[in-house]
Amino acid sequence: MKFWKNGARFRKPLLMAADFTLFSAAYFVAWFLLARRIIFAQYIETMVLGYIFFILIFFVVYWLAGMYESLWRYAEAYEFLKCMIAIMIAVSLYVGVTWIAFRPPRVERRLPFTVYFISGTMAGASTLFFRTAYRALRANRISRRHGTKRKKVLVVGAGEMGVSLIRGLIRSNRYEVVCAVDDDPAKQRRRIQNVQVSGTVRDIPRLAERHGISVILLAISNPTGKEKRRISSICAKTNCELKKVPDIFNLDSNESSEAEVISRIEDVSVEDLLGRDVVDIKRFKNKYLTGQTVLITGAGGTIGSELCRQAAAHGASRLVMVDVVENGLFGIEQELIFKFGESDRFIAAIANIRETERLNRLFEEYKPHLVYHAAAHKHVPLMESAPEEAVKNNVFGTLNIARCAEKHGVKRFVLISSDKAVNPTNVYGATKRVCEMIVQSLESGGKTIFSSVRFGNVLGSNGSVIPLFKAQIAAGGPVRVTHKEIIRY
Q: Which residue of 22, 59, 100, 406 lies most exposed, with the fewest beta carbons within 10 A?
């Protein structure tokens, strides 16, 4: 067992030894078939020299063609085509070299044409069969080893991504690919690696029940939000796991391993289920950021840290990141330094927005052109139990930072508000509405342009209910809202 487990180091010598045996058998079988038609005593010299040329030529051609470098366990059509070409070249060279070398009077007799034909055909066919059989036997052994552990899979999508995924899954032998679906009528009833396209997306529940599918894999390139919602709602009618493969550009490689194939499979995210289209920020050029000094409060939070990333990516000359919590602030600072490699460009400043003196020192030192104010207490139930803290931090903190921006001649001030400020029904929403009113009261008559933007729930953010729901589901439920009076949509 240890020998086979460590067999990779002996793979090349073993393959060469197998080929030597097959070459020799093919050569001498060809002579054996001539036993009744010739007198062997007259061909001894020709037979021996022919054998030496035969072995050498086949080995040299196979070696140069890389036949001993390929991983035959993962061999596809390209590898077998390369093998067939190598065989034809080897046979052609063998015929040409021996026909010239074995001319009388150098040797008494030439090689019989029957030997050329039979030995070349048998050598090529036997080595090709050996490699094919090895691949098939190994796949069967892995399949039996995994046995009932293999999950039955239905692949959604029969385009290039679906084809690559099916090939990778079959190669890995960890999954049993039962069928595929695609809405393209031209692909119906077609087969991919012997996996049939058995219907459209609407047929998923029927196919899942018929074949006992346990995993549905999405393999569609750049689906729209509408497509995601439609597919997700149909898959929800089954009891299957729903997974996706976002990036499988390397699965066509002959060197792909089981781990590489499986590592690309991931759970469908909340964003996929909600079907929100992702905005490609690269399409936009922000004239307000490029070459400017930008100050961002709440820089260690989810919204603040993303604002830092975008400001850095869009050419802010200096980025002043302000937060009272050190862990998040340190994390975003190190991330940006690692990505952009300009430590002097990024300033991490520990500061509390309630402290006017500290804020004034920051504005005097760095003279920001643009301020994004994202710092706030955001947990709705916690703010209900401590309304005075919500007012001190959100309301007075916003007033402090806005006054500093006005005092120091900041060009633009942007308040990151919340959709909960619309007809507020809780303390947090009410404080955010007051913050908007503060900004509105300052926006007239000064050098600073004040504005507000309302954010909805940021999926997966600090304080978002989504991570809580996911943890509850992972623990087996039940799924509870964070407060009995909260309504979730």
A: 100
